[in-house]
Every structure is written in structure tokens, then in C-alpha cells.
Amino acid sequence: MSRIACVKDIEEIAIRKLDKNALDFYYTGAQDQLTLANNRTCYDRYKLLPRVLRDVSKVDLSITLFGHKFASPILVAPTGLQKLAHSDGELATVRAAVRKGAGYTLSTMSTTSIEDVASAALKAEKALSSKGQTIDGDKGGRWYQLYVFKDRSVSLDLIRRAEAAGFEALVITVDAPILGNRLANKRNSFTLPSHMEFGNFKSYAKLVASSNLAGVEKGSIAQGTAEADPGYWLARFSKDQLDPSLTWKDIEWLKENTKLPILLKGILTHEDARLAVYYGVDGIIVSNHGGRQLDGVPATIDVLSEISVAVREASAQKNKKPIPIIADGGIMRGSDAFKAIAMGADAVMIGRAVLWGLVYDGENGVCTVLDILNEELRLSMALSGCSRISEIDSSYVLDQSSEIFLSKL
Ligand SMILES: Cc1cc2nc3c(=O)[nH]c(=O)nc-3n(C[C@H](O)[C@H](O)[C@H](O)COP(=O)(O)O)c2cc1C
Ligand SMILES: CCCCCCC(=O)C(=O)O
């Protein structure tokens, strides 16, 4: 077999390895998958405008967010059900993130508990120290992604557990008041294989009973029966358990209930970016959930510029520094990360790329993905004449649609 040269090579292997149930869950987007496709193709429309004769003998990828130094602006996005990819699931991913000094966010829908992920991360950090290995970044840097449940006592307990386990920020996903229209998952009546379980819900008796969680984990929910309505079990779980009545007022409630920085994940408009600043959140993640929620929304790269202007203006009105902007969706190259940063992101997150690494070779596979993307980013920076992330701005990219627009004038 030829050597792995890029994340696409790893994706191809993962596609061959996964069964249809898991592959469709990971790979597909909502409805006609317009946004999923756009997430990728839109990156190609942005051209790089390199500067030359700059000293790029040293290129520093590190960034600081909320006082924490990360080795790179490429962070691991929260993705659920990682044991579908590899038997070590979230444990493998968090260990890889520790080894690479990468930011890591654990999903509410993990197949491993908050406590087990935290303890694996701490052990991995100790193992690195005992081998005398250093990473270019601070220890820690792990965040917890929260879906807000109708039963607020569950949400509060998850927050307390994340705090106790040393997670350093809360990522509140706001683009999934209900589950997107995921046709492939419907057709497959997607459910968890019987040997897997969700990592965090066992202690919530009411939730287990009301969502037939025990049944789904034992694989005893027959496909296509009334129990699996509407369409399939995950859709039913989100409909029954997650709170679609969430509003900006609830952000105040969250702020009252934790001292951790709060990031909102799933912002796509400058109006909501302004509201996020107004309501005092600490950061936003410009995301369309990897094309899995509302199909037909823009690719994130296309809205970054106006969102970053809005964040700057709204923050200035409060006499505050702009809150960090993180972007995700379709990033498969270090040059994609470069373009997103140029258009206004402080950092980016990768979802599927990590999952492909996990399928390919567990912890080492995720390390390989992070290494490849970081090296590609380093290359893009050096060849563009940037030696620090803070030097990357919109002067380094040309949005071809605006070029076409100008040529028509
Ligand atoms: C299989 C899968 C599971 C996901 N699970 C979650 C989740 O539990 N919580 C969440 O906020 N986002 C979730 N996401 C969205 C990711 O956090 C991220 O926004 C998206 O994957 C970025 O796009 P990309 O996969 O093209 O990199 C999931 C995405 C995928 C592909
Ligand atoms: C919205 C509730 C369940 C979602 C499961 C994980 C996830 O976010 C995804 O995109 O899939």
C-alpha cells in the first residue's frame, strides 16, 4: 500500500473500513447535503495571495485562547458516538489531543464518560512528562460540549461533572433544537450497536426510562417499530430529551450556573454574533454542524468575514476585546485552516477528519491527522510569508466570487 500523504487518503481507508450504519452516520449531511458539499467546495473558491522575502525560517503555530496556550489553532471538534469509529473511542482521541497539544472538546453524546475521558487525559499528560517529552502548549485545554436537556437537572449535573473533571470551558451547541433531517440515518434506522452505550446518562434514571435508553443500548428496539419513531432512535432521543425552547435568556441561566467560559456553537449570522456578545458569552463557534442540521445554510468560510466585523463592533461597544471566533466545517487541509483564519477565525475545529483518523488507527491515527494538518498549515504560512498565526489576515486571501463581481463592474 502506498504511504498516507494527506487526510483524504485516511478518509478513503476509513470509508472502506466502516459498516454502512456507522459510515452514513459520520459521513452524510442533512437532507440534500447542499451545505455539506458547500463546506468543502467553498474553500476552493478562496485563493491564496502569498507575500515573499519574509523571514519564515521559524513558523510558530501556537495560539492562546482563554489564557491557555495551544500548540496549534486546529482544535478537535465535539463529535458523538466515537466508539463507532474505534473501540477506544473518545479515550483514543483525547490521548492524541494531549500528545499533540491540541484543544479538545468532548461531546455530550460520547460513548465514554466525562470522568473516564478526563482521567485518560491526565494519565497521558503524566506519561508525556515521565518520558521527558514536551508539547508546544499548556497542559489541559479540554472543553465540554453541552446539549441543554429539557430536564435542567441533567444539564446542571453534566456541567458539575465537567467542572469537577477539570474541563476548562463549556461549548453550548445552539444549532440543534431538533435533529436535522438526516435521510441516510432514517433509511438505515440508525441506532447504537448493542455492545455500545452512551457514557454519561446511566445515573439519570428518568432520562434512561423516558428515552428507552436501556432498550437501545441492549439493541432490543426493533427497527422500524413505533419505538424507533420518528424515523430512528437518535431523532426520537433528541426530540424527547433536548430542549427546543432554549432562548438567549437561558444563556443568562447558564452564566449564573458556571464560572467556566461559555462558547456558543452554531452561530451563522452577524445578528446572532452581536447577540452573543451582548449576552456576554466568551466565544463563538461559527458552524453549520458539518452540514448535519439545517441544509441550505452557507458554508462557514462565507460568513466569517461579516461575523468577525460584527464581533469586533459589538465588543468595542462594550469596551471589551473581541471575543474569540472559532470556525468549523469542511476543513480537510491545513490551507483550509489558513483561509478560515484569514477570513476572521482565531482557531478552527475539525470533526470528520478526526473520526477518519480514529477509524484508520485509533490514537495514532488521530495523531497522524493532526500532524498532517499542522504541517500543511505550517507550509501554507511559510509559503505565504507568515511566521505567526496573528499575522494571517484577509490580505492573504482572495474570494473569487468577489473577483468575479469586480470584473463585472
Ligand atoms: C459524526 C458526527 C457527530 C457529531 N456530534 C456532535 C456533537 O455531539 N455535538 C456537537 O456540537 N457537534 C457535533 N458534530 C458537529 C461537529 O462538532 C462539527 O461542527 C462538524 O463536524 C464540523 O464539520 P467537519 O466534520 O466537516 O469538520 C458532529 C459531527 C459529526 C460528523
Ligand atoms: C441533536 C441530538 C443528537 C445529536 C447526536 C450527535 C450530533 O450532534 C450529530 O451531529 O450527530
UniProtKB/TrEMBL annotation:
This is Oxidase FUB9. Belongs to the FMN-dependent alpha-hydroxy acid dehydrogenase family. Keywords: Flavoprotein, FMN, Oxidoreductase. InterPro entries: Aldolase_TIM (IPR013785), Alpha-hydoxy_acid_DH_FMN (IPR012133), FMN-dep_DH (IPR000262), FMN_HAD (IPR037396), FMN_hydac_DH_AS (IPR008259). The active site is at residue 289. It comes from Smittium megazygosporum. Residues 1-402 form the FMN hydroxy acid dehydrogenase domain. One of its GO terms (molecular function) is FMN binding. Its cofactor is FMN. The keyword Glycosyltransferase does not apply. PROSITE patterns: FMN_HYDROXY_ACID_DH_1, FMN_HYDROXY_ACID_DH_2. GO terms for cellular component: cytoplasm.
